[in-house]
Amino acid sequence: MKKGVMRPGHVQIRVLDIEEAVKHYTDLMGLIETDRDEQGRVYLKAWTEVDKFSVVLIEADEPGCDFMGFKVVDEAALVQLEKDLVAYGLDVEQIPEGELKDCGRRIRFTVPSGHAFELYADKLYTGKWGVTEVNPEAWPRGLSGMKAVRFDHCLFYGPELAAVYDIFVNVLGFHLAEQVLDPEGTRIAQFLTVSMKEHDIAFIHHEEKGKFHHASFFLETWEDVLRAADLISMTDTSIDIGPTRHGLTHGKTIYFFDPSGNRNEVFCGGDYTYPDHKPVTWQAEQLGKAIFYHDRQLNERFLTVLT
């Protein structure tokens, strides 16, 4: 049943030095700064995104992710989803309109894995950056760095994946696109979507609650991913792994770190899915190939470096 969640809307990332972080996300990744607020938060967007922002940076004592937000179709859907979350037994916090600049009211809740999520219906529509809505050119001039196309998804590490699945699928209307099962048949990784994308959000089992693995941004081509790798080396940016291909989702990818230690991904390609597709299943003994299809073995940093 359609619940009304449309797509990922934004992520708030904690950074240790705001100006250093802004330089990373704009000069290297190619996001565009759109605003700042009285709290010192910096608002950013990728050039194809039509709303004012998708990334919020906030200076803090430790890195990580404060929350991820999803946009819903309208206020009626927001009201109904709030009722459904409360009926499920979750505490829902009201965030007033304008607390994030030019964003409508939000409702925030924390799932059993320890991660906070938001739903909202309204955000200032600014259109794609640098191209017109009538007779648009192919791309805007003046983009920097990797020229990120959009904020795509986040991956979180935490416990109680079954309960998280129940909330996202049965309350919020996501469906399961891919999964990893251990030998006993327990799901230890789940890739969930409300679109044709292979995932709008993903979770991997981890004993400690509330850990942030990465925020991911879409690029158009494999050549763009290779160019991103060149830029990572040109700027002496800390790299995790890649360029390579995932088995899960089959996306072509590279992982690296912002100056505060938060992991970023840029990727291209990947599978598509519809709600009538059966989930793609990987067995845990094939996890190395599932995550890094070419190397077929896990990089220790990928499993242990979390914020």
From TrEMBL:
InterPro entries linked to this entry: Catechol_2-3_dOase, Glyas_Bleomycin-R_OHBP_Dase, Glyas_Fos-R_dOase_dom, VOC_core, Xdiol_ring_cleave_dOase_1/2, XylE-like_N
PROSITE patterns for this protein: EXTRADIOL_DIOXYGENAS (PS00082), VOC (PS51819)
GO MF entry, a single one: catechol 2,3-dioxygenase activity
Quaternary state and interactors: Homotetramer.
SUPFAM superfamilies, sorted: Glyoxalase/Bleomycin resistance protein/Dihydroxybiphenyl dioxygenase (SSF54593)
Record-given protein name: Metapyrocatechase
TM helices/strands, residue ranges: none
CDD domains registered for this protein in UniProt: 2_3_CTD_C
Classification of source organism: Bacteria, Pseudomonadati, Pseudomonadota, Gammaproteobacteria, Pseudomonadales
Segments forming domain VOC: 7-122, 150-269
